[in-house]
Design a protein that fits this description.
The chain is of the alpha/beta class. The protein has 11 helices and 14 strands.
Length: 337
């Protein structure tokens, strides 16, 4: 249930309404916007007598929320969420760029790539330590050693780091060592993992499942937020369709759809969406034009010999060119890279 208060409602009057709802057994989320304050009310609201609330002189209107996701719903939180990570902001006017190798392979590799992407304008360093692979015989990542190398690259460049978590038992160490925890497409509906991440305050990047609807995706975000962690950002990384030319099909329509339904930032990963490095630039440009809050690009210093996803990885020089070409697109949309 949504309670929209009138612009002239004082802080004291708002507190009285919140207290009343809590005394009635409700959980209340207060969202103070530019023009008014909106209360997101959670609990057994089906049988709640909302008519009595509307009698309050400070209440503009009361609305029922039909969507199953509540905290992720834009009706609950009319203003866009902006998540701060170090000096980077995700969800504001500046478009965040996540860049780095699919997998951490060595100290030299990750530090070199980190320095290159930072010089080109990236705001966050990505790197896989634990790698979910379709084949059990494929490279599975350097695991905890990979995390240590990511931390070293962060120390040398100052870039915040993001890495993918695979298991609920690793939440404590990820919460301590990385700046953003990534939940991969295969774990989007790993509800035990999502519940554990809800107990942290660490920013979470939630990738869309390979065959998941937008509502299912937002419901997974709801799991994390319902646990108490509202620092969630979404990542469109392509979905599975009948088309086989590309690895997946990038759903650009998900960007405006999510923007309409939710206040959470949305990132686009054209690298995983296509599996083809030459498609990264045009799709990154398209994502920026469609309103994405960030772009995630795989960058490797030697893609031909990469242990993971070399075909979709761009070189540092290619990444620099991409950044240069994204800038005027962002500017045309009233934003900046």
């Amino acid at each position: 249930m949504i309670v929209v208060l009138k612009p002239q409602a004082s802080k004291e009057e708002i507190e009285k309404i919140v207290l009343r709802l809590k005394n009635d057994g409700m959980d209340v989320q207060v969202n103070t916007g530019v023009e008014c304050t909106v209360l997101g009310v959670l609990g057994d609201t089906v049988h709640y007598d909302s008519a009595t609330l509307e009698l309050n002189a400070n209440v503009d209107k009361v609305m029922r929320v039909s969507e199953p996701f509540k905290k992720a719903n834009r009706k609950f939180h009319p203003n866009d969420t902006v998540i701060s990570v170090g000096n980077a902001k995700i969800g504001g006017n500046k478009i965040a760029v996540f860049a780095g190798p699919c997998s951490v392979e060595s100290e030299e590799q990750i530090v070199s790539v980190a320095q290159d992407v930072k010089n080109a304008g990236a705001s966050i360093l990505r790197g896989g330590a634990f790698k979910p692979r379709t084949s059990p015989y494929s490279f599975q990542g350097m695991e905890f050693e990979g995390l240590e190398l990511l931390m070293e690259a962060r120390e040398k460049t100052g870039l915040p780091i993001i890495s993918e978590i695979m298991s609920p038992k690793h939440v404590e160490i990820f919460d301590k060592e990385v700046d953003i925890i990534q939940v991969g497409a295969r774990n989007m509906q790993n509800f035990d993992l999502l519940k554990e991440l809800g107990k942290t305050k660490k920013p979470i990047l939630l990738k869309r499942g390979l065959s998941s609807t937008i509502e299912e995706w937002l419901m997974s975000a709801e799991y994390i937020m319902a646990g108490g962690n509202e620092n969630v950002m979404l990542c469109e990384r392509g979905i599975r369709t009948f088309e086989t030319y590309t690895r997946n099909t990038l759903d650009l329509s998900a960007i405006p759809a999510v923007k309409k339904l939710s206040h959470l930032p949305i990132i686009v990963d054209p690298s995983h969406a296509t599996g083809l490095r030459w498609m990264v630039l045009p799709l990154a440009m398209s994502a920026v034009a469609a309103g994405a809050d960030g772009i995630m690009i795989e960058v490797h210093n030697d893609p031909e010999h990469a242990k993971c996803d070399g075909a979709q990885s761009v070189t540092p020089s290619m990444f620099k060119e991409i950044m240069e070409k994204l800038s005027p697109v962002a500017k045309a949309c009233g934003r900046e890279i």
